[in-house]
Design goal:
The protein is α/β, with parallel strands linked by helices and 278 residues long. The protein has two domains: 195 residues, TIM Barrel; 49 residues, DNA polymerase, domain 1 (Orthogonal Bundle). 43% of the residues lie in helices and 15% in strands. Strands 1, 2, 3, 4, 5, 6, 7 and 8 form an eight-stranded mixed β-sheet that branches. The longest helix has 27 residues. It is globular and about 55 Å long.
Length: 278
């Protein structure tokens, strides 16, 4: 059983790297990757725990990036996770997130929603602080009735408390992954809301920038989408990867390696990815 998309407490998951490996072992996983958002700080612990359990572990990351028309995430696999250039770039992304959070808090204050940074932090716990935690703080204060309302009225793109985050370009994201010896893969393409022709054009452009894979097997992909993404991978000589995008207790019905029950990542995918390493 393969799962190449999981998150720990080092980003926005609820489990430690060691707990992820224990859960993976319970589910019968044989190969797993830790792909925390914009950080590789948990990789060492993840690899060490996997070795003790006899599970193959792959060093990974999920890098936030943007193009002229889209925000997207680029997964990186088989990274030299102690690479100095990679560390500096990921530090820059995280500092950009902190600046964005400060701007969101300032905008909420101007809208009459007075909450402290400490309040927002309490709703984040060990997770990387982002808009969901502002939304929870807003609910706790009684400013909105639900996190959904917080987003639809204030925090979503185009709303009065939205703040754009500085991020790497897609080309830069692919370059820092390949520069650290890794393989770059487009994460969960369904979130781009592109039609088939638009996505095919995007994949071709990303392949020319060095993309090596597309995440085809994903819990929220329909069977039709999965078939299309697998075909795209074949058409453009990419590896169709997959994983659960496990975040722990945030999605209690989602399981490592199995998604919502019908996720099946082919066993040969990790070796096909490894063969693409620079």
């Amino acid at each position: 059983m393969i799962d190449l998309h999981m998150h720990s407490r080092f980003s926005d998951g609820t489990d430690t790297p060691e707990e992820l490996i224990a859960l993976a072992a319970e589910q019968g996983a044989t190969t797993v990757a830790l792909t925390d958002h914009d950080t590789v700080h948990g990789i060492g612990r993840f690899m060490s725990a996997a070795k003790k359990e006899g599970i193959r572990a792959i060093s990974g990351v999920e890098v936030s990036a943007s193009s002229s028309s889209n925000e997207m995430h680029i997964l990186g696999y088989f990274l030299a996770h102690e690479d100095a250039v990679l560390a500096r770039q990921l530090d820059w992304i995280r500092s950009a997130r902190e600046s964005r959070n400060e701007e969101i808090l300032h905008k909420l204050h101007k809208l009459g929603m007075h909450m402290s940074w400490q309040e927002v932090c309490r709703h984040a716990g060990d997770q990387v602080i982002g808009r969901p935690h502002f939304a929870r703080a807003m609910v706790a204060r009684g400013y909105v009735n639900s996190t959904k309302e917080a987003f639809s009225r204030y925090l979503a793109r185009g709303c009065p408390a939205y703040a754009r985050r500085r991020s790497l370009t897609v080309q830069e994201a692919i370059e820092i992954i390949s520069g650290a010896g890794g393989v770059a893969v487009l994460a969960h393409p369904f979130v781009l809301h592109a039609n088939q022709l638009e996505l095919a054009d995007l994949i071709k452009a990303l392949r020319d920038l060095g993309l090596e894979g597309i995440e085809a097997y994903y819990p929220q992909h329909t069977a039709e989408q999965t078939r299309f993404y697998v075909q795209l991978a074949k058409d453009y000589d990419l590896v169709p990867t997959g994983g659960s995008d496990f975040h722990g207790q945030q999605t209690p019905d989602l399981r490592i390696g199995k998604g919502f029950g019908d996720l099946r990542v082919p066993d040969d995918i990790p070796d096909r990815l490894a063969a693409r390493c620079p």
